[in-house]
Fold:
Amino acid sequence: MIYLDNAATTQVDGSVLSSYMDISTQLFGNPSSLHKLGEMSSGLLNQSRKQIADLMNVYPEEIYFTSGGTEGDNWAIKGTAFEKESFGKHLITSAIEHPAVLKTMAQLEQMGWDVTYLPINQEGVINPSDLKASIRPDTVLVSIMAVNNEMGSIQPLKAIGDVLKDYPTIHFHVDAVQSVGIMDLDLNHSRIDLAVFSGHKFHAPKGTGFMYIKKGRKIQPLLSGGGQEKGGRSGTENVPGNAAMAKALRLALENTEEKKQHLSHLKDQLVNYLTGFDKVSLFSPKGSSPHIICFGMKQIKGEVVVHALEKEGIYVSTTSACSSKRKEQTHSIMGMGYAKEDAETVVRISLGYQNNLNDIEAFKQAFAPIYQQLASIYTDHTLGN
Ligand SMILES: Cc1ncc(COP(=O)(O)O)c(C=O)c1O
Structure:
């Protein structure tokens, strides 16, 4: 199997899994328990929080453990909306966010909030002056992702932060799920107030994640109960998962420049190869993340290509993992101005640092005959045969 679907999820790193298993079997106490085992778990939890904070160059008190990206996005957005309801009910986001953001916004709209969806340009990014123009006296939150999960465009977070410097009461939330090892958000010096991360996107176990909440910023909890995570997120802590995630984050952030160069090299190979086919359109814009290549074969549904590649042992996706099974079109591609018919053709290759040139070669070997076969169907079809 050649796994090229790392934006959907990653394989857990072997050493991270060993840590997870060791901690699960040996340090299984509840961190809230008063006995020694509980104390040891609580110590490990604090250590993991500090490790993550050090890696992100922020304070440990600014790191909150969650179950992943969806929870983090829901918490950041609803938590801000509920906290700031008396000041205003206007939220701003982009048209190409992950469903964890867009569906949360839609839910809040139904509950009486007003949401502005910023458009993107042909490069897949928002224009900071559109953001400035859409800010109102009742705006309480701006939510813009770091790296788009479908076509990999990278949003101008610094420029967005510069706009928001004039509006200190607005919370700036960043869905940073696809950004680990790709972008340094420089949280400590940035205008970002809330940033959401998901462990399974960087080789940690599934069901792990963390959120950065800048000191002094307040959001309402969504989970009420025993008051864990300083009252922000009740529920017995996932100590083995969080410790394993801290280790995975350390590994992910080692030698990032080399890893990015490696990914860029593999991406260049794929892009050069794919652009050689006249019935292939490349959707990933210039300057997009080195780990995502989004393309389509004209008039051929993405799922057809995905399944044909799967038969050859190559694993890729259509759109984001959560939309692909429900056959939802990729809103990111349509946001860039492509037609619905183009959006239906989307295939996403997403690379991980463990992929190598042999994998790219295997992809090429598998794709060429698939292309020939599908392209001839397309030609027959257009000729009415
Ligand atoms: C940009 C982005 N945000 C949020 C999520 C949701 O994260 P999780 O799967 O951890 O809930 C994903 C997952 O694909 C994502 O790519």
In short: The mean pLDDT is 95. The two ends are 36 Å apart (CA to CA). The pocket of pyridoxal-5'-phosphate is lined by residues 68-70, 73, 98, 100, 145, 149, 175, 177-178, 198, 200, 209, 320-321 (CB under 6 Å). Residues 14-252 form a domain with the Aspartate Aminotransferase; domain 2 fold (CATH 3.40.640.10).
